[in-house]
Amino acid sequence: MGQYKKLWYSLIAVLTITFSILGYLGVEVYRKIPPVPQAYVSASGETLITKDDILAGQSAWQSTGGMELGSILGHGAYQAPDWTADWLHRELEAWLDITAQKEFGKPYADLDTATKSALQARAAEEYRNNSRLQSDDKVVLSDTRIQAIEQVAPYYITLYGNDASMIPTREAFAMKNNTLPDENARRQLTRFFFWTAWAASTNRPDHDATYTNNWPHEPLVNNVPTTENYMWSLASIVFLLLGVGLLVWGFSFLKKNEPEPVIPQQDPLSKIVLTPSQKALGKYVFLTVALFVAQVLLGGLTAHYTVEGQQFYGIDISQWLPYALVRTWHIQSAIFWIATGFLTAGLFLAPIINGGQDPKYQRAGVNFLYIALFIVVLGSYGGNFLALSHAIPSNLNFWFGHQGYEYLDLGRFWQLLLMVGLLLWLFLMLRCTVQAFKQKTDKNMLAIFVASMVGVGLFYAPGLFYGEHTSLTIMEYWRWWVVHLWVEGFFEVFATAALAFIFYNMGLVSQRSATVASLVSASLFMVGGVPGTFHHLYFSGTTTPVMAVGASFSALEVVPLILLGREAYEHWSFQHASPWAKRLRWPLMCFVAVAFWNMVGAGVFGFLINPPISLYYLQGLNTTAVHAHAALFGVYGFLALGFVLLVTRYLKPDTPFNDSIMTWGFWMLNAGLALMIATSLLPIGVFQAHASITEGLWYARSEGFMQQELLDTLRWVRTLADLIFIGGACCISWQAAKTVFSRNR
């Protein structure tokens, strides 16, 4: 460890403490999940809904695309309703109407205000307290509630079927006709929706809040933010200010003025003779940009479905390429091409770390990994298509078709193959890096790089820790290990370490600066990022301690983003450090964009929805999509593009980039993303937020609200931003593909 001992001890302490918190509260998640009762019964003891019915409904929901068609407990797509909030509101309205007709002989809407308030209080008491789980693992439902359920269920059975009367509603929700052909499966689906609404409206044992911490906002059943919600929201702001203050003080007092490195007259990396495995990476570059173009085209189609729910400019394509399928491919493609870009950078660096040499069979391993990635991509896409076409038997859907969980939609079989591919990549990386530890040089920077790549190779595995019928709460716990920890955590550390290693080998930064930056950044990212995973689980069936930890630590995730302006300036200035560095302008500009969007997308828009009180009203609205687009592409997308462009420069050093194409491409990507947010996603999210706060989430996601003329116009306006973005993607991708397939001069 040497001179970096304190930094290593700090990083080890951060990882030990934060993962201990994540694990300890993980046990709490398992212990306090919303139960699935053995049965819901009538007052006379008649069984109405069984546990098997609910689990069968969960499978039916997955087979329709799950989170890619509407959302459950706030997680998923934004066009169709949140089925939890929607069912709950419809059932409550039915209960109030039935009761009003029985007792007053007229509809609930015709009652005076005082009578309405009295009925609402009775509904809240029945739903929140009288429907609790009993000691025999059953729930007794009143006759009125049973009638309400029987009134509501046909709506969903008809909606997911092929009845022509529901076509306008399906178009509004971007659903294809006959989304779920089997009528029995549709009936089971309604029981799953009912169970999620029951969990969201029933108080925990010995507690005055529901299993979902009173989410969603539903005044009819007195679902309003808890006191703890307000307290930890305020605390998160205090922790943010404290973290920013400490960071500024630490940066001011601990920063040492390092002597500027002597910039070499020639690019040191250009002197390295490419190894066979490095020469084989051209096809990785092509796969990355090809998937990138496919992803943005699918994104444009997904966005268009929000204005023409079943058509593409009058052409009905929903029966073959429904919204749920296109959105699935759009999100999966993002994960695939960004991950491939990172893997490409690692495989290029590995032989350099190994002294410019390939271990035996390294090229064969690189080629085999490429084939494996290709199989996973095509196989998972095909499985998704067959699943949503219902060509796969229902018992095989989870394994080979569609899991139904956003970002982890691919069938479990393809997920396992992807995990094998990541392990193969890690093996290829370790073959080179382990040898480097035998060299008589400072190995601290190498150690943090190796640690980060181990995280990238292994932390996709938690996505395998749940099954088809696992509780949604437990599934969310492990799903966010992948989406948050793997992508937002270890990818971030890997990128920082890889860039530090690259810039050091180029002679642009000193070894000490690169090492310190890697170690400090890793600690800063992980101290908030690891326990901050819980901010995704506030309302997914977890308890107050999870909310407290998630709110407190996720606020700290924003802290290191305060200094990203300095990082952006450093990356921008590197291109002017020496004449040879100008060749690296466009990879460096991508890294500058990363710093900007990290601050805006992950920082500003991330914190917008991080405090519990914000997310209580904003979860499941377009404000979440603002953060997702700005952070996923703005940060990790530009990182992946920067990596593959950097690799491309060294694969074909004599083939210059066309500055005109790259300028147009780079600025169109940034402008398209900014316009996408400013002209559509954010304004729609703001309007939805007002509706969610005043009326409830059900209204903010309802057909009547989402199809009003203003919001429809805003979605049409987004078309221009999408076209600009697609144009930028095509420019960058064309240049990268053209370069790697050009002949060496």
UniProtKB/TrEMBL annotation:
One of its GO terms (cellular component) is membrane. It comes from Neisseria zalophi. Keywords: Membrane, Transmembrane, Transmembrane helix. This is Nitric-oxide reductase large subunit. Pfam families: COX1, NorB_cytochrome_c-like. Residues 37-217 form the Nitric oxide reductase subunit B cytochrome c-like domain. It comes from the Bacteria. The keyword Transmembrane helix applies. The chain crosses the membrane at residues 7-27, 230-254, 284-305, 334-356, 368-393, 413-434, 446-466, 478-504, 516-534, 546-565, 586-609, 629-651, 663-687, 716-737. GO terms for biological process: aerobic respiration. InterPro entries: Cyt_c_oxase-like_su1_sf, Cyt_C_Oxase_1, NorB_cytochrome_c-like. GO terms for molecular function: cytochrome-c oxidase activity; heme binding.
